[in-house]
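agent: user wants the structure for N-(5'-phosphoribosyl)anthranilate isomerase from Nitrosococcus watsoni. delegating to structure tool.
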Amino acid sequence: MRTRVKFCGITRREDALQAVRLGADAIGLVFYSESPRAVSPQQAYQIVRELPPFVTVVGLFVNAAPGYLQQILERVPIDILQFHGEEPPEDCSHYGRAYIKAIRMAEGVDLPGLAQSYGSASALLLDTYQAGVPGGTGRAFDWGRVPKSLSKAVILAGGLTPENIAQAVKQVRPYAVDVSGGVERVKGVKDAAKMAAFMRGVDSVN
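agent: tool returned. relaying tokens verbatim.
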């Protein structure tokens, strides 16, 4: 099965359109004010309104207040929610939308147990653990820790780059991969050449 690709941390219309031209399946918009890749609802709307059909828009949240998240949903056409904080399953499923739960790969994390707890999730996104940092660490974790079979689809994230993506896909065989910093020129601004190289890396294994 083909590995899907999501370019996350999109802040500019031109980066979103470049992702589409390169064949990305999804783009990610960060609604977390402490992130250097955060976008306002107006920015997000301007990006999304330019997208053609069949590109999935993912909204990323970190322990967001329910009222704030609902405001975003009313202003921006988001397809899937991505939760990167300590949100319990009932909070994730509260909005009646498909969602992804990010799991930071700390020592001793029980992935089969979390897959069962978040049974309503569409997928688990596995990211690098760094204390106090909900994501975007720029560092990879040991891919050997990902079980060969899990009851949920796996989205691999954390420190992925054009240089290591082919090996990551070969080793883990995830449903999808998620990249942000590994294809940037500076934080929040994507590099078209790196994005293209990343896609070639994925395609070389598919």
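agent: one observation worth passing along. The chain has one domain: 4-203.
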